[in-house]
Design brief:
- This protein is an all-alpha fold.
- It has a domain of 45 residues.
- Helix content is 49%, strand content 0%.
- The chain contains three helices and no strands.
- The longest helix has 14 residues.
- The protein is elongated, with a radius of gyration of 17 Å.
């Protein structure tokens, strides 16, 4: 099982507090809540690695605003 899915499963079963689970998995509470929220909205695909690449290309030199 993927480590992110293990984290979500532990959260959902009420195994421990969010703070202690985040410490155990080495993530911030903000990230923990983000992963749990994505799982609740999108299911297992919500916790998969996402691209960090910008959604729009850089502004080209010489382009007019």
């Amino acid at each position: 099982m993927d480590e992110r899915m293990e984290f979500v499963a532990a959260c959902l079963c009420g195994e421990d507090t969010m703070t202690s689970l985040c410490e155990r998995y080495g993530i911030s509470r903000k990230t923990g809540y983000k992963l749990l929220g994505r799982y609740r909205v999108e299911g297992p695909s919500g916790v998969e690695e996402r691209s960090r690449r910008p959604h729009r290309p850089d502004i080209q030199e010489g382009s007019n605003f």
